[in-house]
Design brief:
- The protein is of the alpha+beta class.
- The protein is built from 4 helices and 11 strands.
- The strands form 3 sheets. It has a 5-stranded antiparallel sheet. The chain has a 3-stranded antiparallel sheet with strand order 1-2-3. A 3-stranded mixed sheet has the order 4-11-10.
- It binds flavin-adenine dinucleotide.
- Flavin-adenine dinucleotide (FAD) binds next to strand 5 and strand 9.
- One of its GO terms (molecular function) is oxidoreductase activity.
- This is D-amino acid dehydrogenase small subunit.
- Keywords: Oxidoreductase.
- Its EC number is 1.4.99.1.
Length: 192
């Protein structure tokens, strides 16, 4: 386990098979390397000669501090999406329309805060605590890319709905690699 240590490149044998990863000057050997590096996946795959056609897409991520328990589950409707964690923090992703200044992003955050306060009972005390641009790992065709690539030893697991599907994808990937049998639900998303 090397948490927080960037992989600088994939390591290939003479026949092109991926046989490990390089962490700075250290090499870790592996029979299968799973690239699940979000928007960083394209660069890692390229180091083994595999083209992962990703078109990372920006979205504005608004963070609000609201009274605990106002939003249960995920609320998604025509006007907004919102999810609240146990400490009261609310995440609201908003479409990015080219805003590049902090002032423009703050205006988006303030509009999201107003919408939130108007939409939920007991939300009057809600504060805006942050506005950032988040990059979503999107493949060119919009679908997840999960499975063995054409490069032996190289497996990818990249998806925009990767939070909601994380446990399902993780379970299917582990099963596919350990059993060497393709999982039917992943067949559609085989990397091309
Ligand atoms: C604005 C926004 C809206 C989103 N909306 C949704 C949604 O509606 N539903 C949903 O399910 N998900 C959503 N997501 C989540 C997102 O689209 C992905 O699905 C999710 O982040 C994928 O998780 P992951 O762990 O595969 O990749 P990431 O969360 O991107 O994590 C990849 C990790 O790999 C690390 N990494 C990258 N390169 C290297 C390297 N060379 N060496 C070592 N580590 C590396 C990064 O530091 C990072 O920690 C959203 C994300 C954003 C930003």
């Amino acid at each position: 386990m090397r948490l927080g240590t960037p992989v600088t490149r994939l390591v290939c044998a003479d026949d092109g098979t991926v046989v490990g990863v390089m962490l700075g000057s250290e090499t870790l050997a592996a029979s299968t390397v799973v690239v699940a590096a979000g928007t960083g996946s394209t660069a890692l795959c390229a180091s083994a000669g595999f083209v992962l056609p990703m078109v990372s897409s920006p979205s504005v991520m608004v963070r609000l501090q609201a009274p605990v328990g106002i939003v249960t589950g995920i609320v998604a409707n025509d006007l907004f999406e919102a999810r609240q964690s146990r400490d009261g923090m609310v995440l609201m992703p908003v479409d990015h329309d080219g805003e590049s200044s902090m002032a423009a992003l703050t205006r988006i955050g303030e509009a999201a805060q107003r919408l939130f306060v108007e939409s939920f009972t007991g939300a009057a005390e809600t504060r805006l605590v942050g506005v950032d641009i988040g990059w979503r790992p999107m493949l060119a065709d919009g679908d997840p890319s999960v499975g063995y690539t054409g490069v032996p030893g190289l497996y990818v697991a990249v998806a925009h709905p990767g939070v909601t599907l994380a446990s399902v994808i993780g379970d299917a990937v582990a099963d596919e690699i350990l059993t060497h049998e393709t999982r039917a639900e992943l067949a559609l998303f085989e990397p091309r």
